[in-house]
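Protocol step 4 of 6: structure prediction from sequence.
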Amino acid sequence: MRFDLISLNIFLAVAEEKSLTRASKRAHLAVSAISKRIAELEHRVGAPLFTRFARGVELTPAGQSMLTYTRQVFETLQLMEQELGDYSSGIKGQIRLHATTSALAQFLPESIETFTSLYPGIKFDIEERVGAAIVRAVSDGRADLGVFASRTPAPDLETIPYRSDELALAVAVDHALAEREVVRFSEVTRYEFIASHAESALYALTMQEAAKLNLSLKVRIRVSSFDCMCQLVAGRLGVAILPRHVINIYAQSIPIVGLRLDEPWAKRDLQIGMRDFATLPATAKAFVEHLRLPEM
């Protein structure tokens, strides 16, 4: 079947106006021209698209299906027009980036800031996701790049190291452990925990390590935001395991402190994942090369 945009636009007008007369006014065409275009479409489809009544028309099941796809066609064309318009105004491309909360809270803002200062014409579409979802999005082509923990399985992706972070224990300033500098994980499992959401890599890691000790965490509250976790710790509702850099940032404004976790798993590596560096768009390649740079 071959469809032209003019006929699809006329079909859309008739479907939305539910009247050939109103559609003719909207399309600035004679009713006879509208009727001819609809008849030609119905001939191509091989089924009626509308049921005619004295005061208007209603979509048939075939017409309902065609309406769905016609709207998708025009939405896609609109997106194409917007993106090509960006190129004409100096924008050179867009990078679709999915990353974990840890990466977005600690390292990526600075990386993106320095990159966009070098390439001000590049746009970013950034989504915060858990590790497994990031790997799926990159594998499926819904994201150009992903940043996630090296512990996350990504057998189908090409990966390179990005940054390392350190997990620490966040407690309120008047907590019983607040005067300590270093704690073992086994020491803190008797306290109530503020945990990240169940699908996060951080939650999975802490639960796995507790299971290795034959212990269970007393999870009082689960929340997806590092900000909320720190606020709840400050409110004496529990302790939390968070990246040390995040704790240090919030400790400047709310009454919490960070204690070093004396555990080998407290050191974590983040990595950049992509399907194939060689086939990445030039903009994404430039960003990967920028992320390879050592921290300033």
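Step 5 (inspection) to follow. The chain has a mean pLDDT of 90.
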